[in-house]
Amino acid sequence: MTAALELKQVTASYGHGSVLHDVDLEVVSGKVTALLGANGAGKTTALRAICGMIRTSGDVRLFGEKITGKSPEAIVRMGLAHVPDGRGTFAGLTVMENLRLGAFTAKRSDFRRTLDQVFGYFPRLKERMNQQAGTLSGGEQQMLALGRALMATPRLILLDEPSIGLAPVIVKQLFGILEDIARNEGVSMLLVEQNSNLALKLAENAALLEVGHVVARGSARELAENKEIARAYLGHDSADEGGKAGRAPRYDFLL
Ligand SMILES: Nc1ncnc2c1ncn2[C@@H]1O[C@H](COP(=O)(O)OP(=O)(O)OP(=O)(O)O)[C@@H](O)[C@H]1O
C-alpha cells in the first residue's frame, strides 16, 4: 500500500545550519504515527518541512506524489492539513469564519456535509459558532484548530502538540476524538506530542528524533516497551539510572 507520507533523506534549515539531518520517516495510510523527542529535537521543524514552509532538500511524498519544493497552498490542495503549535486560529474571527477559512481548498459541494461532521465531533463549536475564537477556552480553541483542518477534507493531518496547555480531562476527550477521526474517516496523522505516553497509546507507529536525527523507529508498542527509551523520553526518567533526555544512546536495532 502507498504510504500516506514518506520522507527520505530530508534535511531542512532556517537559513543557517541544518536543523533536520537525513530524516527518513513514514506514515502508513489510515494510521497514526507519533513523532517524539526532547525540546529542540526538531519535531516542529519536521512538520514545517513537510508543509513546504522552510527550505528543505530530500524527498517528501504525499500518497506517492513528490511535494518537496511545492508551495504550502499546493500541498494543502493535495490533501494535507497542518494544525500548528499555538493552534493558529484567528482570534478576531468567529468560530464559523475560522471554519469557512479552513474549507477554502475544499469542494463547495462538500461544505455542508463536512461542517455537519465537524459539529458532530465538536458540538461545542456549533454552540459557539458566532463567538469570536479569541474568547474560547484553550480546549475549545484546539477543537477549532482541528475542526478547521477537517474542513479542508484532508487525507493527512499534521498535529503539533495538541495537548499543550490543556487540562487532563480535555486532553483525554481530544485524544478520544482524534482516535475516532483516524478510525472513522481513515485520515492519516503525524502527531508531534510532548506527552509521549499519550501519543504512543494513540499511534500505531512512532519515531524518535534527537538533535535533528531519527534515532529510533518502530511500532508504538516497541518504543513504549523499550526500557532505555522509556527512561530517557517517556517520563520514567531516573537520575540514578542516568536516563536524561538528550543523552540517550542510538537505538539502531529499531532503525
Ligand atoms: N524560526 C526559527 N528560526 C531559527 N531557528 C529555529 C526556528 N524555529 C526553531 N529553530 C531551531 O530549530 C531547532 C529545532 O526546533 P524545533 O522547534 O523544531 O524543535 P521541537 O522538537 O519542536 O521542540 P519544542 O518541543 O521545544 O518545540 C532548535 O534548535 C530551534 O532553536
What's the arrangement of secondary structure elements?
Elements (H helix, E strand, L loop, with lengths): L4 E9 L4 E10 L4 E6 L5 H9 L3 E8 L2 E2 L5 H6 L2 E4 L11 H8 L8 H11 L1 H5 L10 H14 L4 E5 L7 H18 L2 E5 L3 H7 L2 E6 L2 E7 H6 L1 H7 L22
Helix pairs in contact: 3-6, 4-6
The structure holds adenosine-5'-triphosphate.
Protein name: ABC transporter ATP-binding protein
GO molecular function: ATP binding; ATP hydrolysis activity; branched-chain amino acid transmembrane transporter activity
InterPro entries: AAA+_ATPase (IPR003593), ABC_transporter-like_ATP-bd (IPR003439), ABC_transporter-like_CS (IPR017871), BCAA_Transport_ATP-bd_LivF (IPR052156), P-loop_NTPase (IPR027417)
Chain-averaged pLDDT: 88
Percent helix: 25-40%
- For the largest sheet, list the strands in their spatial order: 6-7-8-3-9-10
Radius of gyration: 18 Å
**Total number of β-strand segments?**
10
Q: Outline the low-pLDDT stretches.
A: 237-255
Element-by-element helix/strand order? EEEHEEHEHHHHEHEHEEHH
Q: Hetero groups bound?
A: adenosine-5'-triphosphate
**Number of helical runs?**
10
CATH domain class name of the domain at 1-79 and 156-162 and 188-255: Alpha Beta
Largest sheet: 6 strands, mixed
Multimeric status of the protein: single chain
CATH topology of the domain at 1-79 and 156-162 and 188-255: Rossmann fold
Determine the structural class based on helices, strands and strand pairing. alpha/beta
InterPro entries: AAA+_ATPase (IPR003593), ABC_transporter-like_ATP-bd (IPR003439), ABC_transporter-like_CS (IPR017871), BCAA_Transport_ATP-bd_LivF (IPR052156), P-loop_NTPase (IPR027417)
Organism: Paracoccus aestuarii
Domain ABC transporter: 5-236
Keywords: Amino-acid transport, ATP-binding, Nucleotide-binding, Transport
